[in-house]
C-alpha cells in the first residue's frame, strides 16, 4: 500500500487488527473518534460523545488538557529520547519523586515501564528476584485471583483470572494459584462502596499456604477494586486480612493499581483509601492521564534495599525497557500530577462519589438490571443476558450508546462499566446515567 491516508476519515479499514474487538463487526459499522477535549470525544463528523469511560480507564484529568499537551510539545522539542540504561534524564527523577510522595508509607522507589501489562510483569519479576537475592530462591509461586485482570503479558494472564484471556495461550507460567473472586450477587447486590460480605475469602490464602508451604510462595497480586471484570470493590476488611496473612508468612503483597491509581477511588492510590500498605504497587494509565504510554512499579524501601548489595558497579536488577521513563511520558506525567494537585481532582472524585452512586443506583428498577455496584467514580451494571447470546445485550447497549446517545461506555460480558474523567460535573453525571438508562431500556 502506497496510499497516504491523512484525513480524519479512513478509506480502508482492512489493515488495522484491533485489539480486544470483534474486528468484522467493527469494520462493518465502525465507531470512530477523531478528536477530544475535556470530557468529550468527537467523531470525524464532529458529533460530541460524552466519555463515560475515561478512554480506557486512563484519561482521569480529562482529554487534551492544555498544560499536558504543552508539556509534551515542549519536551519533544527539547529531548525526544534518552536511554535509562546507564544514563538518565532529569525529569525521570523528578517524576519518580513526585509519585513516591503521592504513594503511602515507605512506597518510595519507582521503576518505570510503558503500560499496565509491563507494570504487572515488572512487579512479579521484582518479587521473584527479591526473594532470590535474599537467599530464599525457593519462593517461586505466585498467587492471583479469579476474575482478576492484570494485563496481557504472560505473567499477567497467568495470575489473572479471565478464562478467555488464558485458554488460547498454552500452559502459561507454572506454579500459579488463584484466590476465589470476591463477588457474590447473593450477598452483595446493589452495594455502594465496599461490600460488608466477603472478608473471609482472604483466608483462602491461608489454605494455599498450607497446601504449598510459605517457603515456596513469592507474592500475592490483587486489584483493590477489580475494574475490567465489572467493578468489584474489595469487601470490607478483605485487604487487611490478605496483608496480615502475607506478613505472617513473608509473602510480598502486590496491589495492581493500574485502574485504581491516580484518583479513581478518590485517593492517589486505593492503598490509601483502604489503609493497607502493599509491598509493591503497579501503576499506569492515569499517571499521564492516558496522553503518553507509561507504567511503573512503586516499591517499599525494604524491597529496594534488598537489591542494593554486592559490588557497586554490578547491575542490581536485570530488567528494563528501551522506553522506561521516556522523556515525553515523564513530561506528560509531571504536567498531569500538577493538574491533579492544582485542581484537587482526587478530592473532587471523593466529593462526587455519593452523587455518582445515587445517579447509578437510580437505574436499579430498569428492565433486566441484575446488580449495580459503585465505588469512587466507577460503576458496574449487570444486565440479564439474552437467552443463548451472552454478551449481545451489552454489545448492543455500547453500540447504541455511541451512535444514538453520544456516550462511550465499556462492556465486559453483559456488564456495563462507567468511569468518567474526574473533571466531570454533577450535571454531566446525571446526563451520563440518563443516556445509560435509555440504552438499557432500548436494548432490553
Ligand atoms: C488492573 C489492570 N492491570 C493491568 C492492566 C493492563 O494495562 P495495559 O493495557 O496498559 O497493559 C489493566 C488494563 O486495563 C488493568 O485494568
What does this structure look like?
The chain is of the alpha/beta class. The protein folds into two domains: 23-61 and 344-442, Aspartate Aminotransferase, domain 1 (Alpha-Beta Complex), CATH 3.90.1150.10; 69-342, Type I PLP-dependent aspartate aminotransferase-like (Major domain) (Aspartate Aminotransferase, domain 2), CATH 3.40.640. The chain is 37% helix and 16% strand. The chain has 16 helices and 17 strands. It has helices spanning 23-28, 54-57, 66-78, 90-102, 116-133, 154-159, 163-166, 185-188, 204-212, 238-249, 270-274, 301-307, 327-342, 345-361, 392-405, 426-442, and strands at 35-37, 40-42, 48-51, 107-113, 141-145, 176-179, 217-222, 225-226, 232-233, 252-256, 280-283, 295-300, 369-375, 378-383, 407-408, 410-412, 415-418. The chain has a seven-stranded mixed beta sheet with strand order 4-12-11-10-7-5-6, sandwiched between helices. Helix 14 packs parallel to helix 16. The longest helix is centred in the first third of the chain and has 18 residues, at 116-133. The N and C termini lie far apart (43 Å). The relative contact order is 0.16. The model has no long low-confidence stretch (mean pLDDT 97). The structure holds pyridoxal-5'-phosphate.
Brief write-up:
By secondary structure, this protein is of the alpha/beta class. It has helices spanning 23-28, 54-57, 66-78, 90-102, 116-133, 154-159, 163-166, 185-188, 204-212, 238-249, 270-274, 301-307, 327-342, 345-361, 392-405, 426-442; strands spanning 35-37, 40-42, 48-51, 107-113, 141-145, 176-179, 217-222, 225-226, 232-233, 252-256, 280-283, 295-300, 369-375, 378-383, 407-408, 410-412, 415-418. The protein contains 16 helices and 17 strands.
